[in-house]
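The authors assume throughout that readers already know how a fold can be written as discrete tokens. A single example would do more here than another paragraph of explanation. An entry of this sort, consisting of the sequence and the corresponding backbone structure tokens, reads as follows:
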Amino acid sequence: MKILKTKHIAAVMLAAGAIGATLPAAAQEQFVPLLAYRTGSFAPLGIPWADGKMDYLKLVNARGGVNGVKIVYDECETGYATDRGVECYERLKNRPPTGASAFDPQSTGITFAVSDKAPNDKVPIMTVGYGLSQSVDGSVFPWNFLLLGTYWTAADIMIQDIAKKLGGMDKLKGKKIALVYHDSPYGKEPIPLLQERAKKDGFQLLLYPVTAPGVEQKSTWLQIRQARPDYVLLWSAGIMTPTAIREAQASGYPRDKMYGIWWAGSESDVKDLGQVAKGYNVITLANSASKGRVHDDLKKMVYDKGEGSDKTGNGVGTIAHTRGMMISMLTVEAIRTAQEKFGKGKPVTPEQVRWGLENLNLTPERLKEIGFDEIMRPIKTSCNNHMGDDWARIAQWDGSKFDVKSDWYRSDKSIIDPMVKEYAAKYAKDKNITPVKCGG
């Protein structure tokens, strides 16, 4: 099936009379906006990510849509620039036939910029594995959905894995752990959690900001060579990641002592480095370093028919591409959940999709049915909890591929939950927000 082009979508809107009008049975369609960055310094990550998001929507349509409702989409290039991202949001938020089901901004900066707009526009903002970490609290952030994990949960799990290698949490005391981070809202997000962990566990936290786009890091790694931290956490994306690994090699810092956030942990980051990156650890979002039946279905129902988004086919099955599919899957499942309440087999409004996101319940059976059972664990959201759960694993580059090296981890809720509550309350006070009353 070919996805509708803009002119045809506009014609559907005119025929329907208004976005909220009931569409004819022959034109049951749901609009999903796709923000992307296929250009700029983050493009090596953004391209397979964008292809994965688009490919899963194609697969859903090949499977018959969402209870018969076909997905239409429009991709908008942001170049990871906040102003361009806001322009895309404004252009697509009311796009027919339904308005934007949910936005995945693919940028912490863009997320911050549109989060203040979303409550008035009544459009959900879905940030899978990124964004403002305290937005897990749905009572303060009813339109934000930070699904599957946050930068706080990721940093916490990295510290847990380091402690396990050292022989226990008590062995962190007296150690030095450095954070090399993109000097932007994205890179700064894990700092509060790491400061809290350092206070609790007795390690010294060293902070090294890197100016965007991250191609000049020599002075940073000279400082690291002098400070000799026991481990380095890397909060980077795009070109900053291979640059950091090369500089680590040049300065003699062992790659097996480095941990990259999930956006610094895909094949495009290390494939050209080969053995130079051997030993490099990354945290995976869920278990996105492995494949599932969804990949087989995608090949059979989309790529074998010449309809795949990645014209080379090289990105399919990679970590970034799989994460893109996960994001679109969560969007589609929110639409499906909304249909169960507001009308099965009918398009739903963005406000109704918000309800679907807040009432997700992806059971093991459902994950198996759609082919994600080997990639994700069950997820259930609520008014209080807009993340669901934060299961993650650690993978390591062996010189040619990533191998999963750990069992499942979850963040330490005794640390994370009080921080979420504290920072969400402060946000509500600063923004003069009256929290929603959640049941239970």
Observations:
- Confidence is low (pLDDT under 50) at residues 1-26.
- The domain at 6-150+290-391+421-430 is CATH 3.40.50.2300 (Rossmann fold).
